[in-house]
Each structure stands twice: as structure tokens, then as C-alpha cells.
Design goal:
The protein is an alpha+beta fold and 269 residues long. 47% of the residues lie in helices and 18% in strands. The chain has two domains: 61 residues, Winged helix-like DNA-binding domain superfamily/Winged helix DNA-binding domain (Arc Repressor Mutant, subunit A), CATH 1.10.10; 190 residues, 2-Layer Sandwich (Beta-Lactamase). Strand 6 and strand 7 form a beta hairpin.
Length: 269
């Protein structure tokens, strides 16, 4: 097995070598791991270079070292792999659920995830009515402007939420109902407290309702959002519609391995 060469244009040699090591450790299917000399020889690297690369991978959790000085993949690889599989599974788990919801309520429904600070619609379903909410864009750049984005933001850890607000300043006029950060705090707290969010927009002509989707760890990774024209909304139907959206979110969460009791026990510990 030969490592990445510097002659390959546009590639960062040290990154390539680190990935070569991870791929080699992944190929060690017997669980025995590999030593520094073994890795260096297989990848045609100098031992000091190999040692330094392994030290970096160890520090970041992507490699692990046993008492015999042999290296294996670390928990960081499992974390990345889990995130990759989770993101692939969300649309698959969500589509049949939101298709049923859209058919039952005869309204437009989407599932959204946040990537790179943008809200991406990864699954969608529609009713049959002529007058309907059209989720025409695949990506919404500002999470504040989307009911799904707001629900996801509401459940971010404090440090990640603060980082998001710092990198995506809330500008006056961006949202009709948000004059500043105090309004944003109020909206996000409401989403956390109620387990869903109702967002009247476009001059109260559109009602959007969203609820959080959780993965096996209890982390909110997506949201189900329903949009309906305001003229069709009836207060007497509010609870039925809200509960239907929340139930859909719970069903998708269960498909992703979320167990409310298990998550509550984990938090209590």
C-alpha cells in the first residue's frame, strides 16, 4: 500500500498520509491493530513522520493505542460514520411518514436539516389542493426565516447557537416578527418549551408549523414542517394539526432510534 505523493497536484500531503493511515487501520479487520513500524513500512513513510501523524490522530480521537503500542481506529471515526449514516437515513425514514401526513391533512410538508448554517429541505410531500404553500427553494440561507430552521436552532447547545448568531447576524427586516435578539430568544424558548413552533409569516397569510426530529442520542438533527394558507386555518382544528405534525416528528425520530425514556434516563445520569 503506497501513500499519497506530493506530486499529485492540489493535494495536501500530510492530510493524504493521515487518511492513508486511517484507511490502513480500517483494513485491519482482525482487531489486532498495527504498530508504528508496520504502518510506516506499508505506507513507505519515515518512522518519525508516522509517529507524528499518529500522535495527531490520537489527540483528535481518530486513532486509539493499546498497551502493546498498537494502533486502531478511534471513537472519532465512529462519530463521523454515525453522522454520515444518520444524514443518509433521515430522508429515507421521513418520506413515507410525511407523505402520509400530507395526504391526511392535504397540505404541504417538508423535512429540513441544517448544514453549514443553511436549512436544506431533504424530503417533501404535497397535498392535492390548488391553493397550497410551495416550498420552492431547496435551501434557505438564514435559519431564522424558516420554521424548521428555528426549531433546529432552538435545540442547539448554547455555544453552537451563539456561534451561529455571531456568524449569521439577525438583521432588521429579515423576519417580520423578529426585531432583534430578544425576539429571537423568545421564539426559540417557545419552541423548546412547547415541543413545536407556529410561525405566521408573509403578512399572516401563511401558517407554518414545525416539530423537532431526534436521533438515537436524543440530539435534534432535523425538523418536520407543515405549511398552509392562512385562509384555510381554523382555530378549532389547531390542536389536531399541531399534534399531527408532532406525531410525525416522533415517528421519524423512532425510526432513527430515538427512545424518549432512554434519553431521559441518560440525561438524569
Amino acid at each position: 500500500m503506497v501513500g499519497i505523493r506530493a506530486a499529485e497536484d492540489g493535494l495536501v500531503q500530510s492530510v493524504g498520509r493521515a487518511l492513508d493511515i486511517l484507511e490502513m487501520l480500517a483494513a485491519e479487520g482482525d482487531g489486532a491493530g498495527a504498530g508504528v513500524s508496520e504502518i510506516a513500512r506499508a505506507l513507505e513513510l519515515k518512522i518519525p513522520t508516522t509517529h507524528n501523524l499518529l500522535r495527531t490522530l490520537l489527540a483528535r480521537g481518530y486513532a486509539a493505542k493499546d498497551g502493546a503500542g498498537r494502533y486502531r481506529l478511534g471513537h472519532g471515526c465512529a462519530r463521523l460514520g454515525g453522522a454520515y449514516r444518520r444524514d443518509l437515513r433521515v430522508p429515507q425514514a421521513a418520506q413515507p411518514v410525511i407523505s402520509e401526513l400530507a395526504g391526511r391533512l392535504n397540505e404541504s410538508v417538508v423535512v429540513a436539516m441544517m448544514t453549514g448554517g443553511e436549512v436544506a429541505f431533504v424530503a417533501r410531500a404535497s397535498g392535492t389542493r390548488m391553493l397550497a404553500v410551495n416550498f420552492e427553494h431547496a435551501v434557505v440561507r438564514a435559519g431564522y426565516t424558516s420554521v424548521c430552521g428555528r426549531v433546529i436552532l432552538a435545540h442547539l447547545p448554547v455555544d453552537r447557537l451563539e456561534a451561529y448568531v455571531a456568524s449569521h447576524p439577525l438583521r432588521r427586516g429579515t423576519c417580520e416578527d423578529l426585531a432583534g435578539l430578544k425576539d429571537l430568544d423568545r421564539v426559540l424558548e417557545s419552541a423548546r418549551r412547547k415541543g413545536h413552533l407556529e410561525y405566521w409569516r408573509e403578512g399572516n397569510t401563511v401558517l407554518a408549523i414545525a416539530a423537532p426530529i431526534r436521533d438515537f442520542s436524543g440530539e435534534v438533527i432535523a425538523a418536520v414542517g407543515l405549511g398552509m394558507p392562512g385562509v384555510r386555518f381554523r382555530k378549532s382544528e389547531r390542536n389536531r394539526i399541531v399534534n399531527a405534525v408532532k406525531e410525525a416528528a416522533a415517528e421519524i425520530s423512532a425510526e432513527l432510534g430515538y427512545e424518549p425514556k432512554a434519553a431521559a434516563t441518560s440525561v438524569a445520569r
